Amino acid sequence: MHRALLVSEILLDIFAHVNTILDPLSYGGISLTRRSLATLATTCKTFYEPAMDLLWAEMHGIVPLLGCVTRLHPMIYHHHAGRYSWYSEGIDPLCEHEIHQFMRHAHRVRSLQIPFDNHFHLLSVLPIETLIFPKLLSLSMVPHPTEYLYLFLSPTLRRCFLSLIHPDLKLIATCCTSLEDLTVKVPCPSTTDELSLLSNGIRLCKQLVTLYCPPLDWAAWEHLSNLPTLLSVAISGEVLCPLDTDNFVFTRFLNITTLSFHLTTASYVIAVMRNSAFPSLKEFKMIARFLPWEDAEQLFHALSQCTTRQTLQHIEILSRDQGVPEPLDNSPTLITQFLDFTQLRTLQLAFPHCCFRLDNHLLLRAMSSWPHIRSLKLEDSQLRSATITFSGLFTALRQSPHLHTLHILIDALSIDIDPQAESFQHTSLQTLDVRSSHVADRDTVAYIIFSMLPSVECVIYGSSAHHIWYAWREVNKRLRSLKSSVVLDRRITGC
User: Fold this and answer.
1) 366-375: b or e for each residue (b if 16 or more CB lie within 10 Å)?
2) What is the pLDDT of residues 269-325, one digit of tens each?
3) Any residues with CB less than 8 A from the CB of 381 and at least 6 apart, and which?
4) Distance from C-alpha of 292 to C-alpha of 299, rounded to nearest angstrom
5) Is pLDDT of 194 > 80?
6) Which one-letter DSSP state was computed for residue 151?
7) Distances in whole angstroms, Cα of residue 468 to Cα of each of 79, 437, 445
8) Are 399 and 364 in contact (CB under 8 A)?
9) How far is residue 131 from each of residues 167, 289, 292, 301, 452, measured CA to CA in Å?
10) pTM summary value
11) What is the radius of gyration, based on Cα positions, of the chain?
């Protein structure tokens, strides 16, 4: 053996590289990585421990551990090498000496996914205080509530994923005092009792860094505001009980940088933003099933007032409901609420009437207010006609040199610039989505894009109308032709 392999750091680096081997698997197969690590473990005593640690570090279910039990091994691996398909129904639970066989390598497990609970009855003899996985860092539980949850908890646990609001959530919070990442992603609406159980459990978590869960009550939000470790909160699900703002004390979330909401309406979000301050917030995202104009206006105002103006960099607000009534003629333009967000890098507004009263002048004001903007997506399915002309677009682009993605409805019918006379080029823009813009003079439009947006390879368009689809396809065909002619000229001239 080469002397370098006796240096533990070098050996661990080599084995870590082996552990990154990608191998497409068929169902139930053993990957090339695992076969390689198993071979290394049987090579010599020096290789055994580090190879076994990596081999057992990530487990998908407990079957491999049950395979260490002498009585169960032939039942589990009864197919040809490298495959197993096993049902434990009707098999007696493990006895005391078999428990030791089961736990032989459990201390090496760092990440555990539990996709189903078919085999839990085999562990019924284990005492409640048994710590099977003393070094477990990540746990993902998909099964329905089970009385065996306690077997998978560890004081070292950092990340936990649950597919439902578990009745023993308080047990997780009290046993796993180092828990940093908690995800509770339920597939169906929760009951009022379940949401109360969730909020009570969250209030016992003291070290959270990231949280994803259904809507919480005010007590839970107030608890979260006292966690200096908390950086990211995502709320998703049905709001069964509106927040009582009359009994809520204004709260500051000093270190939260990311907020995300996926709800039916914006009412819950508006209540949170109105009664809280997020001085470190950088990313805000909301997806609402229904977002009427009045709610959008209140949300934008609350967002602009919650001390995020100098920090917020990414905003996404989406709603696909088409049954939203039109705003009144004297309603303000929503985008003006964001003009004070001078650090914006990304802005995506995709809901009905989000571009109400947007014109060349307002676009210029917006771009002038966002010197760092890189991606701007304004997707209004209810916009009847384009109000941004090419002249207005390129005047605004002069204020945003870093913009690389733009989704906006453009008036491509009224050509109000002469591309032959323009020397301006915006070299950063790479993705241009004109939505469902109408176009007539395809040659001129193609030349405008070719000469002024040299990094745009083709224009993206989205319309079910055949004539619009065909027109922009022709524009792209002409654009490709122009770019090809330049490449050919360079080859001929050698420049």
Assistant:
1) bbebbeebbb
2) 999 998 899 999 999 999 999 999 889 999 998 988 877 788 999 999 999 887 788
3) 320, 322, 352
4) 11
5) yes
6) G
7) 58, 7, 14
8) yes
9) 20, 44, 52, 51, 66
10) 0.87
11) 29
